C-alpha cells in the first residue's frame, strides 16, 4: 500500500537567524520579502487582517499561503 499523506515532516525554525536577517524589516513589509509572485486582492485583504503582534507568527502565517508555497 502506498498511502498518500502518511509522511510526517518534522521541521524547526531557527528564529535567531530569522530575527537577525529581518530585524530592520517592518512586519507589514515581510510579505514583500517572502512572496515572490503577484498576489490578488483577496490574498492582500487576508494579509491585512492577520495579526501583526510578532514577526515570527506573521511569517508562519504568510508561509502557509499557497502563494508562498507555489512560488
Mean pLDDT: 88
Count of individual beta strands: 0
Strand coverage percent: under 5%
Instruction: Give the CA-CA distance, first to last residue.
Output: 32 Å
Helix share, percent: 40-55%
The gyration radius over C-alpha positions equals 14 Å
Order of helices and strands: HHHHH
Number of helices, counting only DSSP H or I runs of 4 residues or more? 5
Secondary-structure-derived class: mainly alpha
What's the main sheet like?
A: none
* Low-pLDDT windows of residues: none
**Global morphology:** globular
Structural summary, described in words:
The protein has helices spanning 15-21, 27-34, 41-49, 55-63, 66-70. With 71 residues, it is mainly α. Helix 2 (27-34) packs parallel to helix 4. The longest helix is centred in the middle third of the chain and has 9 residues, at 41-49. It starts with 14 loop residues before the first helix and ends with a helix. The mean pLDDT is 88.
Can you give me a brief rundown of this structure?
With 71 residues, the protein is mostly helical.
Per-chain topology:
Elements: H1 15-21, H2 27-34, H3 41-49, H4 55-63, H5 66-70
Task: Using brief descriptors, characterize the structure shown.
71 residues, 0% strand, globular, mainly alpha
Amino acid at each position: 500500500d502506498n498511502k498518500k499523506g502518511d509522511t510526517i515532516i518534522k521541521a524547526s525554525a531557527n528564529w535567531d537567524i530569522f530575527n537577525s536577517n529581518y530585524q530592520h524589516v517592518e512586519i507589514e513589509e515581510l510579505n514583500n520579502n517572502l512572496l515572490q509572485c503577484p498576489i490578488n486582492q483577496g490574498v492582500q485583504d487576508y494579509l491585512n487582517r492577520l495579526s501583526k503582534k510578532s514577526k515570527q507568527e506573521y511569517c508562519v502565517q504568510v508561509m502557509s499561503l499557497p502563494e508562498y508555497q507555489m512560488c
